[in-house]
Design a protein that fits this description.
The protein is α+β, with helices and mostly antiparallel strands and 121 residues long. 26% of the residues lie in helices and 31% in strands.
């Protein structure tokens, strides 16, 4: 999995400062870095993305279960010759996204998908 694009942090330093009851701007830089680090840590450890995130993944065979969530859409699917691959996307009851294609005919597939709580912010 490789993240190719990601929206900026949806939380503002002002929100965090209000919560922490910090009134000066002296620590804004530090708070901003902690905020970015906390968001990155949460997304990486839970595979739950709070911001719109585009990622590319290459899979050798089908079907594939992807645990990163929430799934928004499949942007493209290509074989190793950069030809389009028809992929069926289903959501399992456990929140897992399942990608399925004819891997006997197409071989490996590189999937570009968008994840994230895009309606959250």
């Amino acid at each position: 999995m490789k993240i190719t694009a990601q929206d900026p942090n949806p939380f503002s330093v002002a929100e965090i400062k209000a919560h922490l009851r910090v009134e000066t701007a002296v620590e804004d830089d530090v708070i901003s870095r902690y905020l970015d680090g906390a968001l990155d840590f949460y997304e990486r450890t839970t595979d739950h993305y709070l911001r719109s995130t585009t990622m590319v993944q290459r899979f050798a065979e089908s079907p594939v279960e992807v645990f990163a969530r929430p799934f928004v859409r499949l942007d493209s699917a290509k074989d190793d010759d950069d030809e389009d691959v028809s992929v069926t996307v289903t959501e399992a009851p456990t929140g897992v996204t399942v990608f399925e294609w004819d891997s006997d005919a197409a071989g490996a597939a590189t999937l570009l998908s968008t994840l994230g709580d895009v309606d959250r912010v």
